[in-house]
Amino acid sequence: MTPSETGDVTVEPSLELDSLFNAVRSRSSELCDALEPDDFLLQSMPDASPPKWHLGHTTWFFETFVLAAADESYVPFDPSYGYLFNSYYESVGARHVRAERGILSRPTLGQIMNYRKHVDARMNDLLASDRDRAKLDFLIELGLQHEQQHQELLLTDIKHAFSRNSLLPAYRDSLKTSDSTPPTDEPWLLFEPGIRDIGHAPSPDGFAFDNESPRHRVFLEPFEIQPRLVTCGEFLEFMADGGYERPEFWLSEGWDRVNRESWTAPLYWNRDGSNWMNFTLGGLRQVDHNAPVTHVSLFEADAYASWAGCRLPFESEWEVACGDREVEGNFYEAERLHPAAATRVAPQQFFGDAWEWTLSSYSPYPGYRQSAGALGEYNGKFMCNQYVLRGGSCVSPRSHLRRSYRNFFPAHVRWQFSGIRLVRQLQA
């Protein structure tokens, strides 16, 4: 899911598959080094999962979809794990209730780590063998991409869990905040009307999930897109102008959510006297006015855009504007873990600050065909009542990000590192 704020191991695409496998698998364990044994069972809401479950589920994925596919005689490490760690693969079998993953005190953390060691050893045997590369290598890379997704989720989930603790513990106390500088006043990026191609362009070395294909044509009206994300300071101006109290800026469902759940600020923000404080993976910090605002829902992003006289981008506009930019990333937020992280919002930055809400409903591209078998459930079954986000966040592994990547969440979700980029519509 980069050197990110997580100080991710830089996994270069040129690495051999066995090295890539071991680097990604080791990274999951490294992310847990900052946790105490009591933390591994925390589940603060149904959408989140305990760290121990993430470790078990990603291991079950390799065991079920790679090792068993490579050897019909493969015997699972523990047959009961198929029920405990299946996430949503209906065609694989029954599974434990998602909202109750936090009650699974057994298997123990030690047993889960032994499970990982067992599967890793068998996977390394497979990687060293004369395997059917055409059949298995894609499945192995799919498993690694899947594990990187869960590395990101592990951090977003533990942040939410710690935020519910009145002690407000830090995931990592050593996270430091550098002095930030205001974003530069870069001109907005102008795009003329025309037909453009978007979607994954197949290449020998390029991985993509099936929902990123096929590449297809779109027609875009003229637009200007902000070269950076909206900052906390700018969002504070929206709040000071009664943004959470003025229904004219809000979608109807969003306004209902504001009133029902008493939203007055982004998730993790709380007022301390005259100051706004932000709970981060490094503990409670004062809101950095120059940092990108994160942990806002689509409803909040859309309301801010309306207040600013703009709108959110469609995913096609975002991808065209992104162009051929490299996945570099600020990995910015105050809780960033990467020691070389930038100290300001970079101009024309499209990766690694926050997942950026778009106005595009998550639906199949023209010509999309869902993959066959259990793995076909991965993306296709969720193509309803979700919105697309682009760009990757400060907790996304860098090697996991790419121009065509489509993340997706319901409009009300705020626990993800989600932010705002603005678009101005121009007359054709």
Summarize the structure.
The chain is an alpha+beta fold and 428 residues long. The chain folds into two domains: 17-163, Four Helix Bundle (Hemerythrin (Met), subunit A), CATH 1.20.120; 189-425, paralog of FGE (formylglycine-generating enzyme). It has helices at residues 17-31, 51-70, 81-85, 109-128, 133-163, 232-240, 252-261, 298-307, 315-322, 377-380; strands spanning 189-191, 194-198, 216-220, 223-225, 269-272, 275-280, 283-286, 355-361, 387-390, 407-409, 418-419, 423-425.
Explain the layout of strands and helices.
Elements: H1 17-31, H2 51-70, H3 81-85, H4 109-128, H5 133-163, E1 189-191, E2 194-198, E3 216-220, E4 223-225, H6 232-240, H7 252-261, E5 269-272, E6 275-280, E7 283-286, H8 298-307, H9 315-322, E8 355-361, H10 377-380, E9 387-390, E10 407-409, E11 418-419, E12 423-425
Parallel strand pairs: 8-11
Antiparallel strand pairs: 1-4, 2-3, 4-12, 5-6, 6-7, 8-9, 9-10
Helix pairs in contact: 1-4, 1-5, 2-4, 2-5
CATH superfamily of the largest domain, please? paralog of FGE (formylglycine-generating enzyme)
User: Uncertain segments of ≥5 residues (pLDDT<50)?
Assistant: 1-14, 329-345
Cα distance spanning the termini: 38 Å
CATH architecture of the largest domain: Alpha-Beta Complex
Strand order of the largest sheet: 10-9-8-11
For the record, what CATH class of the largest domain applies?
Alpha Beta
Calculate the mean pLDDT score and round it.
Answer: 89
Could you tell me the CATH topology label of the largest domain.
paralog of FGE (formylglycine-generating enzyme)
Percentage of residues assigned to helices = 25-40%
How large a portion of the residues is in β-strands, by DSSP E?
5-15%
Encode the helix/strand succession as letters.
HHHHHEEEEHHEEEHHEHEEEE
